[in-house]
Please model this.
Amino acid sequence: MPSPAPPATAASTPKYRAFICYSQQDRIVAERVHRRLESYRVPKHLVGRETATGPAPSRLSPIFRDCDELAASSDIGAELKEAICASQFLIVLCSPAAAQSRWVNAEIEIFRTCGTENDRRILCAILSGDPGTSVPETECFPPALRQDTVDAAMPWHFPLAANFRSGTERHEDEELRLIAAMLDVNFDELKRREHVRRIRTLRRALIIALVLVLAFAALAAFAFLERGQAQRSAQHATRARSEAEKLVDFMIFDLRDKLESLGKLSLLEPANEKVRRYYETIAPEEENVELLRHRSFVLEQHGDDLVVKGDTRAADEYYRAAMAIRERLLNLKPKEDLLRTDLAGIHTKLSGIAHIQNNLTVALAEQTTATSIFEQLTQRDISNANCHFGLATALVGTASLHLQTGETNQAEKELRRAVEIFEQLVSVAPTPATVANCIAALNQLGQTLRKTGEKSEAEADLRRAISLGEKLLQKDPENAKLLEQFQFSHAVLSEVLGEAGRQDESLVQRREALKINRQLAALEPRNVEYQRGLASTCIMVGELLCQQNRYSDAEPYIREALSITEKLVAEHPGDKRCLADLPNHYNHLSGLYLGLGKPKEALQQTQRAVEIRRKICVGDPTNKEMKHWLGYDIHCAGVALLDLKRPTEAEKCFRESIAIANELVDVDPSNLVPLQFRALYELQFGAALRGQNRTDEARAAYRRCLQTVAQYTAKGGLAQSVHYPREEAEKALVALR
Model:
């Protein structure tokens, strides 16, 4: 063993922040680590903080890395020993080559003898191999780092080991792990600060890009106005316009994708407005394909933003404007498959609008068109992964609509095919987008199997989805899109377990979903959808607790949901979705009060719900979904009145609810939801009549309830969805014989 250099005294100030110890076979990685660590800027709020290693510096430099080959030497030189002992930390790049290098081992032993605390200041970065295997070909820890080979008289601590193996992602996180140890700060705190810094960098990039877009657009306009220098101006304008469009292209695609994965799309809104105005200057007779294509994407993305804000009518207009451009592009370039993909995408968006507006017939027609386009594209080019991805995504959308129209078997076939396609894509290239969509398809399949009563298979698919999500989230823990699907997996699994009578397990899964909702809401506090999702899951946790008669435990969750939604309504008075959520939460609070034996308070909450919903329906009389929920709100008021022994008033409520359900059935016979709810309303109507001793009329109401159940199941509705009204109506008829 080489003779150690004299240990540094406690009072001495280290000359180097760290010494990088490595095998010459790992020199390239050592250079990169050295460069990254020395260039790292410590967050301002941490600089000067007192730590166990002294005040936190603004930079981690200098860091010593020996650049000379030692193979020909018989001993480590005095200068190198001095550098090792003058270093605050030792960073060991671990690999099988390093484990077998006597110089790497000697440097570690020297560092350990240079100070009493140095054993705790050894940091490892695993480049390849595995620690603790004792197999020379794969062991990556040098002997001086292995407990079984260290002198028993010396203190030993398993060193911090960051994972830099090739093939793994998120090396930035592992570098941060080393930096956090060197600064003596919490890794999660440092990572959050880096996340904030990354967002600020994106903001600056966005602002710069926007300024440049405006500048180039102004140059283009100026060039066009300078007609006296026609040739030169035309060239200048073409260049300026080309540069402007490159920046616009960056904002439309690259920057938007990055911000969307971080849940920060709201940052793009000011830029989107400027870009939209720029494209409005394009002449109607323009035939430049890329220019027109970009304009269609700008229109589509503005439609997306309007959907998020709840303005579906305006969104529909923008989507149709985008579709008109894409249809024109296909006329210009009929053999261009990429343009067909774009057209399929806009059909999917129009389907989504029709779905939100509760027009399932139109929604299914648009989604079927999108699916047909992707079917044709995959047949033309069977090796095109993007087309297969689009087809699988379209199949999931079509299946979702078939579920709502009662075509469960067809939905299941489509979902199984989508899952098969996604799993093949994941096996070839497990990108975050592909994995997230595979999880979404498994979620939907699990939801479908749950509705058909195949609960064991549903549970298996959902647990597959959760397993996929866990693996990817380890590499990308702040991917908002993935977190959304992961949350939904837990939520649907909670429903499956609850329906199987496993209430405690169901509650565990719902609380896991709530934890993810809180993570999303913290990731982007201004994101209205994340706040709504958090409120919704709070309600579901409260509902599960109510089902276990744990009303006191449920109350904080329901009140939290109500508080979140009331705040959203106050902050976003024009957002119809938030306003529509409010009566739903009042109804849940009403149910809680009924469970607590407080029917008066329950009635007050349902009356508030009905009042808000009536106002929404007056402002938007064609909105069938709001009309449906108005019928349900009125029914809830009727239930509270029954509990207060006021059957005459309850009867009026149920009559109105039934009338609304009948109206919706007449408007769209393919929509089974109004039928499902009408069965419930007829059941409660019968109860109100029984309360007034109107036995014959009550019997007739119960029979209509059973007729509605039969009609619902005959159209493909799931029997378990109407199990409660059927069972209760049959019991009531027996009692009235």
